[in-house]
Design a protein that fits this description.
By secondary structure, this protein is α/β, with parallel strands linked by helices. Helix content is 38%, strand content 20%. The chain folds into two domains: 3-102, Enolase-like, domain 1 (2-Layer Sandwich), CATH 3.30.390.10; 107-354, Enolase-like C-terminal domain (TIM Barrel, Alpha-Beta Barrel). Bound molecules: magnesium ion (MG).
């Protein structure tokens, strides 16, 4: 089987009600999507935070076998292609390999430890509303009413906002729901420690990206100072970026994003390095239906660590923000029931792309 064509799409979904994290206000969601066609008629789909250049595709992808995923990865990397763009190609190759073998990708990754994954609701952004606290409490209660047993809120807006609103949401949802916070790199080391000490009073699951994504020494300092799990690394690209973070014990939890870190091929290497160093892996997910399906296969194929009677759950980040490319790009939408999501069982990614939706937003 040979790759005969690679199409790239820049997909943009305009957000109707903008929302903010500590660093930016989101008015549109932009994604790179690739479609790889083979001479056997099998087509694979991938997503990346960026897209590869035409010349890189023509030189290193066209004419190769889709089973050459490692060879293609290394060739694109050494040619200088951004790792996020390699992710898009790599995910599409795994989609093709699964379809060619008539197996879901999780079976190619070593088999499914689970067919359903507990999700946590990612939302609770800052919105342009008169009463932030009332809006956050209502939104959090809504997620609990939908059956979510875990959720994550955005912080990093300064001590006043963070301390008041995290406490209000924790009171509203009670103690039985897993509750994480995410500062999206909005603090420096000192502020992260000062605010984190107050936030830790709310029994938090983790404190995500308190500081700059690659500040290894800073994360080590914060992790020693705070009595809660510290997570991060959703922006890191490739195994070398993760190496010091993992080996120096800078994070309790790494959160690689399959569309940023280098696709399935690179994620496996990062996850193996984390496992050898007793660092937990909970993937980041904030994208289209392609990224959602790919992330579910990663979570299906991830062993519990440790293998306890009541293991720390393999958690899917379930983005609750408005995005038609997540909810409509796959013909059969990937939804949750009582906060639990089923892993697609069809071959490859297990989704069928709705070309009308892709065309509408490309
Ligand atoms: Mg995050």
């Amino acid at each position: 089987m040979k790759i005969v064509d690679v199409k790239t799409y820049s997909a943009v979904y305009p957000v109707k009600q903008p929302f903010s994290n500590a660093m930016r206000t989101t008015r549109e969601r932009a994604f790179g999507i690739v479609e790889i066609t083979t001479d056997s008629g099998i087509t694979g789909w991938g997503e990346g935070a960026t897209l590869p250049a035409r010349r890189a595709i023509d030189t290193h992808v066209i004419g190769r076998s889709p089973f050459d995923n490692e060879v293609i990865w290394e060739a694109l990397h050494y040619q200088g292609t951004d790792t996020a763009a390699i992710s898009a190609i790599d995910i599409a190759l795994w989609d093709i390999m699964g379809k060619a073998l008539n197996q879901p990708i999780c079976n190619l990754l070593g088999g499914a430890f689970r067919t359903r994954v507990q999700a946590y609701a990612t939302g609770l952004f800052r919105r342009n509303v008169p009463d932030h606290t009332a809006a956050l409490v209502a939104e959090a209660r809504g997620y609990a009413d939908q059956g979510f047993k875990a959720m994550k809120m955005k912080v990093g807006f300064g001590p006043d906002y963070d301390i008041k609103n995290v406490a209000a949401v924790r009171r509203a949802i009670g103690e039985d729901i897993l509750f994480a916070v995410d500062a999206n790199c909005g603090y420096d080391r000192g502020s992260a420690i000062a605010v984190g000490q107050r936030l830790a009073e709310n029994n938090l699951l983790w404190f995500e990206e308190p500081i700059s994504a690659d500040d290894v020494e800073g994360y080590i300092e914060i992790r020693r100072a705070l009595k809660m799990r510290i997570s991060g690394a959703e922006q890191l690209r490739g195994r070398w970026a993760f190496r010091r973070m993992i080996q120096e014990g800078a994070l309790d939890i790494i959160q690689p994003d399959i569309c940023v870190c280098g696709g399935f091929t690179e994620y496996r290497k990062i996850a193996a390095m984390a496992s050898a160093n007793h660092v937990r892996v909970i993937p980041h997910m904030f994208g289209t239906a392609i990224r959602l399906a790919a992330t579910l296969h990663l979570l299906a194929a991830a062993p519990d660590s440790p293998r306890a009677h009541e293991p720390f759950p393999a958690l899917l980040e379930y983005d609750m923000s408005e995005n038609a490319l997540r909810t409509q790009l796959a013909k059969e939408s990937i939804t949750h029931t009582d906060g639990v999501v089923a892993v697609p069982q069809g071959p490859g990614l297990g989704i069928e792309i709705n070309r009308d939706v892709l065309k509408q937003y490309s």
